[in-house]
Amino acid sequence: DVVREKAESLAEKWPRYDGTSSHARLVFELSGAAHTVDIQVWRDRQEPVAVRGEGADFRSALDEADDRIRRILRKDKQKRRDHQAEPADFPG
């Protein structure tokens, strides 16, 4: 329950990093001692983002995946912002 609450809390924050985020899917998997979390975030008019986090427990795997998602969402948002701000080059 604690990990599920943390996952829900993190997913609610992702639209702050990229407002085009519409919904997410998180998959938790335990294979032997390896804990993995796969996250997919869908965005309006953008390609979905998918990452995987691995760790000794689900909490650390979730933290790793969250760091990656945030980084990607910020970077993509900044790229779109920079592209929109570029002045048009017209020959004089």
Can you describe what's shown?
With 92 residues, this protein is an alpha+beta fold. The protein has two helices and three strands; from the N terminus they run H-E-E-E-H. It has helices spanning 2-17, 58-85; strands spanning 21-31, 34-43, 49-55. Strands 1-2-3 form a three-stranded antiparallel sheet, with helices on one face. Helix 1 (2-17) packs parallel to helix 2. The mean pLDDT is 88.
Key descriptive features of the protein:
92 residues, 2 helices, alpha+beta, 3 strands
Task: Annotate the secondary structure layout.
Layout: H1 2-17, E1 21-31, E2 34-43, E3 49-55, H2 58-85
Helix pairs in contact: 1-2
Instruction: Assign an overall shape.
Output: elongated
Cα separation of the termini:
64 Å
The major beta sheet can be summarized as:
3 strands, antiparallel
- What is the N-to-C order of secondary-structure elements (H for helix, E for strand)? HEEEH
Rg, alpha carbons: 16 Å
Proportion of residues in helical segments: 40-55%
For this structure, the quaternary state is single chain
- Give the strand line-up of the largest sheet: 1-2-3
Strand content is: 25-35%
Give the overall average pLDDT: 88
Strand segment tally: 3
How many separate helices? Answer: 2
Low-confidence stretches: none
Class per helix and strand makeup: alpha+beta
Summarize the structure.
This protein is of the alpha+beta class and 92 residues long. The chain has helices at 2-17, 58-85; strands at 21-31, 34-43, 49-55.
